[in-house]
Amino acid sequence: MKKTLVIMLVALIGIGAQQAKAQIDFGIVAGMNVNKADFKHVGNNVRSGNRCGWFVGPKAEFTLPLVGIGADASLLYSQRNIKIEDAAGEKTNHMNTIEIPINLRYQFGFSSLASAYIATGPQFGFNVGSKKIKEMADFNYYKVKNSVLTWNIGAGVKLLKHLEAGVAYNIALSKFAKYMGTQEGSLRSNTFQVHVGYFF
Fold first, then answer.
1. Which of 35, 122, 116 minimizes the C-alpha distance to 74?
2. Which domain range does residue 193 map to?
3. Residue ranges with strand state E in the chain
4. Most buried residue, 14, 59, 98, 173, by CB count within 10 Å?
5. What pLDDT shows up at residue 6?
6. pLDDT value at 53 more than 50
7. pLDDT above 80 (res 87)
8. 16 within a domain of the structure (yes/no)
9. Long-range contacts, 17-23 (Cβ 8 Å, 24+)
């Protein structure tokens, strides 16, 4: 009897492991960033308009069988365009970063052909481009931090187990850049994202 129970337990673990393994998906995602910089600058009327950018990179998704709870992680190359407007005019700066979002997700199916998901989690960004965000006068600029922490909230759908489309809002938890000048100031940047992906 004990031997039978052990054999059944091992068999169930093996089946569960195979099912869990089958729920690990790898793919590539690409999408659009729509961001607006939020300036905190004492003594200067600086503002920013919405600007579009893009991102692309590999993504891995893991979902526990039956319950639909899982996680996803990506390694993205991202470009954000930050527009600065002041009394002297306007200037657009291009910021390039490596982004690593890690999300807890819950996936639920409508049928065998389609499912939906909600996801949330931290995103770690690392600057790989310009160290400065300049105003119209070149001697007025913001020094970009080497890394920044943000938080994602998103949702989307997956079709035919291969195609994914989703939206997310990326909330800044730390300063993106610090103003370098006689006045105190800083910059944060929240981003709205739309993406599509293909999983193999």
1. 122
2. 25-199
3. 24-41, 51-63, 69-74, 76-86, 89-109, 114-127, 132-134, 141-144, 147-159, 163-172, 177-180, 185-199
4. 59
5. 44
6. yes
7. no
8. no
9. 19/65, 20/64, 20/65, 22/65, 23/62, 23/63, 23/64, 23/65, 23/70
Would 112 be classed as within a structural domain?
yes
- Average pLDDT for residues 44-65, to the nearest whole number? 82
Q: Is the backbone of residue 67 left (phi > 0), alpha (psi -120 to 50) or beta?
A: alpha
Give the number of other Cβ atoms within 10 Å of residue 44's Cβ.
Answer: 14
Q: Is 193 helix (H, G, I), strand (E, B) or coil?
A: strand
> Is 68 inside any structural domain?
yes
- Amino acid 59 reads K
Asked if residue 182 has pLDDT above 70, the reply is: no
- Taking a C-beta distance cutoff of 8 angstroms, is the pair 117, 107 a contact? yes
Count CB atoms within 10 A of the CB of residue 129.
Answer: 15
Q: Residue 5: what pLDDT?
A: 39
In whole angstroms, give the CA distance from residue 62 to residue 104: 10
The answer, yes or no, to whether residue 83 has pLDDT greater than 80, is no
Q: How many domains does the chain have?
A: 1
On whether the CB atoms of residues 142 and 133 are closer than 8 A, the answer is yes
| 193 contact partners, CB below 8 Å, separation of at least 6 | 31, 32, 33, 34, 55, 154, 167, 168, 169, 170
CATH number, position 48? 2.40.160.20
Confidence grade of residue 122 (pLDDT, cut at 50, 70, 90): very high
